[in-house]
Amino acid sequence: MIGDGAAIADFVDRITELSGQSALRDRQVLLDRLRQDRPDAADIDAADLLYYAELVRKEQLAVDAQQVRRYFPVDRVRQGLLDVTGRLFGLEWAAVPDAPVWHEEVAAYDVALEGERIGRIYLDLHPREGKYKHAAQFDLVRGVAGTQLAEGALACNVGRGLLEHDEVVTLFHEFGHLVHHVLAGRQEWLRFSGVATEWDFVEAPSQLLEEWAWDPAVLATFARDESGASIPAELVRRMRAADDFGKGYQARTQMFYAALSHDLHVREHPDLTARAVQLQSRYSVFPPLPDTHMHTAFGHLDGYSSGYYTYMWSLVIAKDLFSAFDPGDLFDPEVAGAYRDRVLAQGGRRDAADLVDDFLGRPYTFESYAAWLAQ
Ligand SMILES: [Zn+2]
């Protein structure tokens, strides 16, 4: 989606500039807290960063995890996930109790759009011995119009009782891939079926769907405690503030990684440690730790190569896509329907930049991402 290699370097510099204020603001909060313990501290480095970020979250942005958890019993979350996405995309989910599955805990649902069956999904949500340990969506069948219906599965490892909110966000994220796979499964050509878009766009629809797991009005539709009381909007706002803390300096650290991944791909350097130190000093707001060699443990270089920027790129696109939705009614059927038909259902038939343009009615911009950072 980004077009060419030189655009990666431009993107890194652009995000660095946009995240500057937010990064320095939150870094100062960490530094102030560090100075309560060590008044002469001149800076905060990676050795202290996580500890003080945790401390600030606990002391200044505290959200009681137990209080949050009681609103997320797993059965309600699972039904909420189906209800929210069903309502948003005009989909119906019909349980298929006798579908062949690979484990008794796996639930199968047929997916219908406007009364027409378009695919089948499988939810395998809980951990067990020998199972895949992370959270991901897997294609089982890629759909081809008139030939085969799309089938996809979620393999996650959320608890069986009360969930953490970040588990809820993960479920929405992975479900985003699943919905994309099924909705884009009615193509003439297999090559374009499902999540067949450019690598730097693949995460955007899932990052977008995470927004529904953060919206107080959406959460209130299913996040209820034993007494039936919905999660208070005020609590959701505090959860979001805690989650947002550090987003600017995290963006800058991400840009250091993205710059390193791109730079090592295009140039040879006689001293890689010296180059990593140089790039960290330029992009991160935290100084390099002496005598460390970060690049030797940077696993993404193997696999992502120059493409580490894709994480942040797709977030920028996700924020731009989200700007088309009405914050007062995230279910507005006109917007959601346009997004479904013009972006998701297209699969890989067109360049992602064109899909985004077609939905937004303009080329993508960085504005929404910048506004989010500034909050
Ligand atoms: Zn993902």
Can you give a write-up of this model?
The protein is an alpha+beta fold. The chain has two domains: 5-63 and 243-374, Neurolysin, domain 3 (Orthogonal Bundle); 74-224, 3-Layer(aba) Sandwich (Collagenase (Catalytic Domain)), CATH 3.40.390. It contains 14 helices and five strands. The protein has helices spanning 5-37, 46-60, 65-69, 74-89, 165-183, 204-210, 216-220, 233-244, 247-266, 272-283, 310-322, 333-342, 352-360, 367-374; strands at 91-95, 107-113, 116-124, 136-141, 150-155. It has a five-stranded mixed beta sheet, covered by helices on one side. Helix 1 crosses helix 9, helix 9 runs antiparallel to helix 10 and helix 11 (310-322) packs across helix 14 (367-374). It is globular, with a radius of gyration of 22 Å. The protein starts with a helix and ends with a helix. The model has no long low-confidence stretch (mean pLDDT 95). It binds zinc ion (ZN). Zinc ion (ZN) is lined by residues 173, 177, 203, 206. Zinc ion is lined by residues 173, 177, 203, 206.
Detail the topology: elements first, then pairings.
Layout: H1 5-37, H2 46-60, H3 65-69, H4 74-89, E1 91-95, E2 107-113, E3 116-124, E4 136-141, E5 150-155, H5 165-183, H6 204-210, H7 216-220, H8 233-244, H9 247-266, H10 272-283, H11 310-322, H12 333-342, H13 352-360, H14 367-374
Parallel strand pairs: 3-5
Antiparallel strand pairs: 1-2, 2-3, 4-5
The chain binds zinc ion.
